[in-house]
Amino acid sequence: MRFRSPADDPTAGxxxxxxxxxxxxxxxxxxxxxxxxxxIHAVRGLSLDVRRGEIVALLGPSGCGxxxxxxxxxGFEHPDDGRITIGGHLVTDATGExxxxxxxxxGRRVGMVFQDYALFPHxxxxxxxxxxxxxRPDQARVDEVLQLVGLEEHGDRxxxxxxxxxxxxxxxxxxxxxxxxVVLLDEPFSNLDAALRVRVRGxxxxxxxxxxxxxxxxxxxxxxxxxxxxxxxxxxxxxLQQVGTPEEVYASxxxxxxxxxxxxxxxxxxxxxxxxxxxxxxxxLPCRPGLEGPVEILVRPESVHIDAVGTPRGAxxxxxxxxxxxxxxxxxxxxxxxxLKVRSRRPGYPAWHPGDRVKAWIDGPVTVLPRA
Amino acid sequence: MRFRSPADDPTAGxxxxxxxxxxxxxxxxxxxxxxxxxxIHAVRGLSLDVRRGEIVALLGPSGCGxxxxxxxxxGFEHPDDGRITIGGHLVTDATGExxxxxxxxxGRRVGMVFQDYALFPHxxxxxxxxxxxxxRPDQARVDEVLQLVGLEEHGDRxxxxxxxxxxxxxxxxxxxxxxxxVVLLDEPFSNLDAALRVRVRGxxxxxxxxxxxxxxxxxxxxxxxxxxxxxxxxxxxxxLQQVGTPEEVYASxxxxxxxxxxxxxxxxxxxxxxxxxxxxxxxxLPCRPGLEGPVEILVRPESVHIDAVGTPRGAxxxxxxxxxxxxxxxxxxxxxxxxLKVRSRRPGYPAWHPGDRVKAWIDGPVTVLPRA
Amino acid sequence: xxxxxxxxxxxxSDAPGTAWDALWRDRTARLAGRSLGLxxxxxxxxxxxxxxxxxxxTRTDLPxxxxxxxxxxLPFVVPSYVGAYLFVSALGxxxxxxxxxxxxxxxxxxxxxxxxxxPLILLPVRAAMSRLDPALEEAARSMGRTPVDVFRTVLLPxxxxxxxxxxxxxxxxxxxxxxxxxxxxxxxxxxxxxQSYKASFDRTGAAxxxxxxxxxxxxxxxxxxxxxxxRGSGRTSPGVARAATPVRLGRWTVPALxxxxxxxxxxxxxxxxxxxxxxxxxxxxxxxxxxxxxxxGNSLLTGGLAAGAASLVALPIALLAAxxxxxxxxxxEAMSSTGYVLPGLVVxxxxxxxxxxxxxxxxxxxxxxxxALVVHFLPLALGSxxxxxxxxxxxxxxxxxxxxRGPVSVWVTITAPLAIGGTLAGxxxxxxxxxxxxxxxxxxxxTGFETLSTQIWxxxxxxxxxxxxxxxxxxxxxxxxxxxxxxxKDR
Amino acid sequence: xxxxxxxLTVYSGRNEDLVGPLFExxxxxxxxxxNVRYADTAELASTLREEGEGSPAxxxxxxxxxxxxxxxxxxxFAPLPPATLDGVPARYRSTGGTWVGTSARARVIGFDTxxxxxxxxxxxxxxxxxxxxxxxxxxxxxxxxxxxxxxxMRKISGxxxxxKWLADMKAxxxxxxxxxxxxxxxxxxxxxxxxxxxxxxxxxAREADGADYPVGVHFxxxxxxxxxxxxxxxxxxxxxxxxxxxxxLVDFLLAQESQQxxxxxxxxxxxxxxxxxxxxxxxxxxxANPDVDLADxxxxxxxxxxxEKAGVL
Lengths: 372, 372, 491, 313
Ligand SMILES: Nc1ncnc2c1ncn2[C@@H]1O[C@H](COP(=O)(O)OP(=O)(O)OP(=O)(O)O)[C@@H](O)[C@H]1O
Ligand SMILES: Nc1ncnc2c1ncn2[C@@H]1O[C@H](COP(=O)(O)OP(=O)(O)OP(=O)(O)O)[C@@H](O)[C@H]1O
Ligand SMILES: [Mg+2]
Ligand SMILES: [Mg+2]
Prior knowledge:
The complex is a heterotetramer, with two copies of chain A, one copy of chain C and one copy of chain D.
Chain A (H helix, E strand, L loop, with lengths): L25 E12 L2 E12 L3 E5 L6 H9 L6 E6 L2 E5 L7 E2 L7 E4 L11 H7 L7 H10 L15 H13 L5 E5 L7 H18 L2 E6 L2 H7 L2 E6 L2 E6 L1 H6 L4 H7 L3 E8 L3 E4 L3 E3 L5 E8 L4 E4 L8 E10 L3 E8 L4 E7 L9 E6 L3 E5 L2
Parallel strand pairs in A: 3-9, 3-10, 7-8, 8-9
Antiparallel strand pairs in A: 1-2, 1-4, 4-5, 5-6, 10-11, 12-13, 12-15, 13-14, 15-21, 16-20, 17-18, 17-20, 18-19
Helix pairs in contact in A: 2-4, 3-4
Chain C lengths: L2 H12 L1 H9 L1 H34 L5 H9 L6 H12 L14 H26 L2 H9 L4 H30 L2 H5 L5 H10 L4 H26 L24 H32 L4 H35 L3 H10 L1 H4 L2 H15 L7 H25 L3 H9 L4 H30 L2 H6 L7 H11 L6 H21 L2
Helix pairs in contact in C: 1-11, 1-16, 2-11, 3-4, 3-6, 3-8, 4-22, 5-6, 5-12, 6-8, 6-17, 6-19, 7-8, 8-11, 8-17, 10-11, 12-22, 13-14, 13-17, 13-19, 13-21, 13-22, 16-17, 17-19, 18-19, 19-22, 21-22
Chain D lengths: L7 E5 L3 H15 L3 E5 L2 H11 L7 E4 L2 H9 L3 E2 L3 H5 L12 E14 L24 E3 L4 H14 L1 H13 L3 E2 L3 H9 L5 E5 H11 L5 E4 L10 E9 L5 H12 L1 H10 L3 E2 L29 H11 L3
Parallel strand pairs in D: 1-2, 1-3, 6-7, 6-8
Antiparallel strand pairs in D: 3-10, 4-10, 5-8, 5-9, 5-10, 5-11
Helix pairs in contact in D: 2-3, 5-6, 5-11, 6-11
One adenosine-5'-triphosphate sits at the interface of chains B and A.
């Protein structure tokens, strides 16, 4: 493959991307970005650094400003405040200190997958992809990326003859074709089925890694963010809530909001004794020593075990009242003997059914946060 | 809420949808549907019945013909062959026997969410939703459905001022607003984040149930299909592979393709002795008696248990070689002592890491299919 | 582009008193009213016809829709003075076909001008309609709306910019037309302007009246801007629009065909047959074929040059209008459009006045002819180009930029190909109008430079109208191919 | 003219079909090359005025005295030598001596020979307001010759009479046509019985259609403004730098042969002494010509105002 030069350790030091100079630390760095649309404050003072060769997922609910953020990085939106550096070059400066800087999008050497694909309707699939490779596109490279997204046989079709998922894959192929040093991906897999998504995700990840490409991946899909990214930036209402490795944000959420956004969680009030134990209606649980007073105890369903006969200490009687089936697992809603409801995620087999009487106990990480 | 009349048992007998007459059994019934685009055979002789009040998911990979199928049901595509009955009325007959029938889309009384939303750019959100309610839309109802999708505060915005996920929710609200007897949903949740998706899905499901609405839900998302639908129709290359309850299609896939499409699966060759046992490199496993000769053994990762110390009979030594983290669970790739690779899905905690030495054993359903 | 305005200013300032008097004649107000009334009526009826034909030929399974689209656009190539004359002789008192007294006066002017201006709306509306995302119509129909209802509530609002733009052109055409109203004896504003020049050699009065016309145009412009405001923000859906599935007309096929037949019959067949009959008489008199051929060549040349030049000039203005809309842009647009509302004679005289003083080297050359035609007909190119540009999704251009291409490169490879339909529509309108134009060619063309339109003029001027039949027919013939290309080009 | 090309530039308001052959002959005989721009007389006059000093034109050949008079008033014409002027009767040339008539046309009443006998045609335009002609008369109020005729009526009979006549005509249902040709054809088609025309339109059609052409011409009586004779004429522009050649052209147009051409080809009255009138009409000096100075006929503004006021325009 025609990559610039593979970086051995993508997260450390200068990547293999030899056309980027400046400080070796960050491929993308933004400080205090803000963007308003009329009275809608889409991005509010957001700061984020992405290291060379790193894959960072920008995860957040619909309408939280992810696309706006990405478009600002790409140079399509002029922020109202803030500063952006890409590959060590200052590309946007809207801080108002000094001269305003705004490098045109094509000057930023950044690949982009648009949330609405933005395919060229008048060009066929090959030409759409080739467009990113300049005037005389290398056809072998076009074939290569089309193969990557499984569209090698659709090269001559025009976009309007493709299904939604196929169109999305063309957009992905087009962004990756020129092996840019930095790519911005806006929900690039949202219209792919799981099997294909897993395959394409895996391929894209491998490809980004091999080429030492820095990627900022916008997604609303927790699974995608957690499984693909080196770090996850959780965004809410235009601001970053937490930035950390997938395990950090999932298992040690900084706020209740982050915990709830990253997956199912049941919240119980409790109180901490300052000595490392939090007590609640559910159970007594260990917590950070020094935490004292009213707390919230966040329990993920996979930390709640159930069995027909409960062996562990502290197992409680429960009744299965609802159940959602997801194939590889199932989400079981339990009612404890004192009427408290709690959810448990179990493997898809054996099946639990409403009405089953079980024993439930906690085995796994729980998060204890001070109550506001 | 302004629903027609709630059906008590949505899967049985005539629903509460009093404006549908004809045979009470099926809300949608199609036989031998085929549709070509030039030399692309998008739908090939597909037959499917959807009962009153039932939610059926049409699940298949990108480009398999799902959208085409839905558009044909809605009356936007003229099939090359086949017959469609909606609510007991023959709406399409392209079989060539007898007179060709094609009821116009507006005559089918079918709600639809389009994969590309198809919002009216010249109308604001309220007007988009109100449009589905006729000339004098009931504003209370508009508010109700906007609330359902969490957009009550965006009523005056125009579509281009909304984020992708917000647009999709408007499309959903618009289709549900008039409480049609039958709705066709084309990937209605693909741009929503998991938390929102779970909420909206749950609400939509409840709403469909309460109103006894029959729904055909196109999706490429296995989780969505398995958790939302009463039955899942798995589609591949224009044809149905299997139709059944979520448990059936997931746990007893009819073909290897269905098994692989619905989730991770590892396949091992083996041979059956005709007496109910299949032996393979992995283990000896029970299978359907009478099955004899070469077989394929399909093992889902969640049926593979691992532990640091293996207790059960038949537990084998394994080495963790790879691991993908999904928060609530993790996918662990194991290498058995004889070099065989097999995957295991475990809860997100405790964490396994490449290099861990473990015991692995099978506990859960496996599927044994004759080898072609 | 606002040279005519400069000219009017200079002339009026020469003798402001006279100008004032000319304006304050009570007849002025009355005629302005009448002209505006006619313009409004024509704009309305022409819009109705154009939108109906556009829908039938882009969104339905009407048999032969391409052909109908071409045929329905063709009446535009009939110069309105020829058309008016033909109708008077065909339908007027003592007419060949039937006798209808209303052909004179308001009724006739309305009828004839509607017939010969609706293509001004048809072409841009068709182009716009074929670029609209059919998914929206499908969505509306899935909500139980009938095609007619969908048309009203979904298509029409989205077409508003195109319709408003086209209707503005039709209204301005009507205001500036002299040929048809004079033959049909409708007392209009332009007739007074012409009379001021011709009968009383009163250039000041004429200029004052012309300035009033410009004022009226500005008002219409503002009106159009209002109709257009906040509309057509383009496609928001992800992915690329599917091709439209045609609406099946079913039992409406026959009425639709009948409608089209009537329209084409009246707008095209009657004029062509009448011209053909007259031509056979003229052919007996051994016409000078080589001269007519030269005329045809010259018509193609001036029309082609004018179309090309107008497109080039319109481009930056259209880009500005599409990408940076705002008050200032509107002013630029309005200023560059003043030429269109003025009668041809005023524009030509303005160019005489300016040309001989500023660029004597170019005076009475092809250069100044093309320049004058551009000044006169720029809005034709501008309007449809702007609409076409507006319909190119922003994000597609952005995708081009993110592929590392500069704005110019993106423009050439993405925007231009996507907007080419509308651009060609505009260029074709300029071409078709330019080949009909008279005063510019008579006064500004190189000496001895004849086009089909000057030939028609010089023949009908001395003899009866029949004498101009052959060049008129040839004019129709040379105008048809570009029109055909244009209509069949858009997908 | 002000331009540097070789030919003599002529702005001709007279149609190419009519005068083209004359110009060709001139080129052949004199060796002077001509660049002729054909257009509407008034439009050319307006053009000349806009061009002013820098005009490329050397000679203006106009259709009517009004346009010529207007240019004279703007002082755009150079004076013509007395020898040239004297070849034409004084009333058919400019009093200022800057332009000269080359041919003349008379106002007549055209009539439908199938419905009206010549002796039944009135001898004065003032009779046309009588009830017996209600709805039977056509006129062409936008036509230059007609307007010149109304101007003459104002001069001869006074403003009030003219105004009343116009109003009465309108009240009597006079049908307006857009040009003399249309009016003539309307008579031939039976739309109206009588029409206020120029004589040669009828002669022309008669020549083309044969003797049984259903329109006749009637010259009205004596001092009636309806008998007005107007001229086409030529002048040399001040801005010319080729006045000898220009002068040659003017003289050529007044020469015997050219004058003959007008009589036989365009059915107009020649103006040079001793050239016979066209066949089928009385000689020019036999027509009782109303007493009006053609130079006054440039007061079309007044006429227009009158026509407007009467609601005729
Ligand atoms: N052009 C615009 N005009 C006005 N508001 C806008 C515009 N674009 C975006 N917004 C608003 O800004 C906010 C952020 O939008 P953005 O598109 O960045 O969301 P997002 O995080 O990408 O959401 P999604 O996951 O649904 O795509 C939203 O509330 C949206 O409605
Ligand atoms: N208008 C068209 N012309 C030609 N081919 C088409 C057209 N529409 C769809 N196809 C092809 O038909 C097949 C089925 O398309 P369809 O849109 O039904 O897929 P889908 O199952 O909805 O896929 P996705 O999940 O990606 O939306 C695809 O291969 C597609 O390329
Ligand atoms: Mg977004
Ligand atoms: Mg689809």
